[in-house]
Amino acid sequence: MSTKNRNHLLEHAFEAFTSAWALQRIFAVGPGNILVAAVFVLLLFFYAKQERAGDKRSRVCADVLAAVFAVLYCAYDYGKITDGLSSGAFRAGIFAVTVCGLFIMFRNLLLWLFHYTTGGNLRRLVFQNDTADSHLNELKMTDESVYRKHLFLITFFICLVCMIPCFLYEYPGIMTPDSINQLKQVIGLSPLSNHHPLIHTMIIAIFYKPAFALTHSMTAAIGFYTFAQMCLMALADAYCVNTINKMGARRWVIIVSIIFFALVPYNWVYAVSMWKDVLFAAAVMMFTASLVRIFYVYKDVELNKQNTCKSDNEKDAGGNPHNTYEDVSVKRNRMTYALQFISCLGMSLLRSNGWYMLLGLLPFMAAWVIVSARRGQTNVAGRLATIWFMAFIIATVIKYPVFSALDVEEPDFIESCSVPAQQIAYVLTKETDVPAEDMKLLSNVIDTDKVGALYAPGFADNIKELVRAGHEDYLTQHKGEFLGLWIRLGIRYPADYLKAYGDETYGYWFPDRNYTVADNEGISDNELGLTSHPLIPARIFLKLQEVQIKLGDMIPLYSSLWCMGAVVWLYATGLGIMLIEKRYRDIIMILPGLLGLFTILIATPVAYDFRYLYFLIYCIPLYFAVVCHHQ
Question: Fewer beta carbons within 10 angstroms: which end of the chain, N or C?
Answer without folding.
Answer: N
